[in-house]
């Protein structure tokens, strides 16, 4: 069943310094569960696969799966906490503006994806697989809802970090709108990736094209809506 090396899409899952055997086994099992679930969902559809089947394929109990992942949706959308942690760290850096902090995270995540693509034996098939992965999420209501909930949680994380920077409260209008605007850069990157995936020749060109779209959106956040003028055509 496994045709794509999903583990290469998780470069953050490197072996921590001083990791013991028990911790390593837990980390690798978590990755195996997510990768196996992703393959099964893409092959048969999210709703057609039971968690018990994923557990059986990995040789563990269904209870064990839920010990690692609180919901079925989190088996496939499992990077939200990593992004939240990155937001906390980057937005706390006084040497980075909020927009630059978001761009730094997005650039790393985009580099992870293009590195994953270039590492596959068949890059053309890998592109198609990545598009199918996006279609799986967009076509599954529960995954879309989970993704929205995760985005809301990340807005709250960003608002708290921005409030700390500015001496305001997280529920004040300024950190709320700023956090919402910053997190809107993530769907911009996903859409740009989908748009440019089969329009660019090399993965370096793909990275540059997607980054350019994201930076255009980020520029609007920095300059404000007053800079949103009609584009001349022709």
Brief rundown of the structure:
This protein is mostly helical and 234 residues long. It has 10 helices and no strands.
Description:
The protein contains ten helices and no strands. With 234 residues, it is mainly alpha-helical. It has two domains: 55 residues, Homeodomain-like (Arc Repressor Mutant, subunit A, Orthogonal Bundle), CATH 1.10.10.60; 148 residues, Tetracycline Repressor, domain 2 (Orthogonal Bundle), CATH 1.10.357. Helix 1 packs across helix 2, helix 4 runs antiparallel to helix 5 and helix 7 packs across helix 8. The longest helix has 26 residues. The radius of gyration is 19 Å and the shape is globular. The termini are far apart. 24% of the residues are buried. InterPro entries: Homeodomain-like_sf (IPR009057), HTH-type_TetR-like_transc_reg (IPR050109), HTH_TetR (IPR001647), MftR_C (IPR041347). GO terms for molecular function: DNA-binding transcription factor activity; transcription cis-regulatory region binding. This is TetR family transcriptional regulator. Keywords: DNA-binding, Transcription, Transcription regulation.
């Amino acid at each position: 069943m496994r045709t794509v090396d999903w583990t290469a899409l998780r470069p953050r899952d490197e072996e921590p310094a001083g990791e013991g055997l028990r911790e390593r086994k837990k980390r690798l099992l978590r990755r195996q569960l997510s990768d196996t679930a992703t393959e099964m969902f893409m092959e048969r559809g999210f709703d057609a696969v039971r968690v018990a089947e994923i557990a059986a394929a990995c040789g563990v109990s269904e209870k064990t799966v839920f010990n690692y992942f609180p919901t079925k949706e989190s088996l496939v959308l499992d990077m939200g906490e990593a992004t939240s942690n990155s937001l906390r760290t980057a937005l706390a850096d006084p040497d980075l503006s909020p927009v630059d902090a978001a761009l730094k995270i997005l650039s790393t995540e985009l580099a992870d994806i293009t590195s994953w693509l270039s590492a596959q034996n068949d890059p053309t098939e890998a592109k198609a697989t990545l598009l199918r992965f996006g279609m799986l999420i967009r076509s599954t209501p529960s995954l879309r809802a989970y993704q929205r909930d995760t985005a809301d949680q990340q807005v709250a994380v960003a608002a708290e970090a921005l409030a700390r920077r500015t001496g305001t409260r997280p529920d004040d209008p300024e950190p709320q709108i700023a956090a919402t605007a910053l997190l809107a850069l993530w769907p911009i990157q996903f859409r740009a990736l989908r748009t440019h995936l089969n329009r660019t020749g090399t993965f370096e060109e793909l990275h540059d094209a997607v980054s350019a779209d994201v930076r255009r959106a980020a520029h609007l956040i920095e300059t404000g809506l007053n800079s949103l003028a009609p584009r001349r055509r022709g």
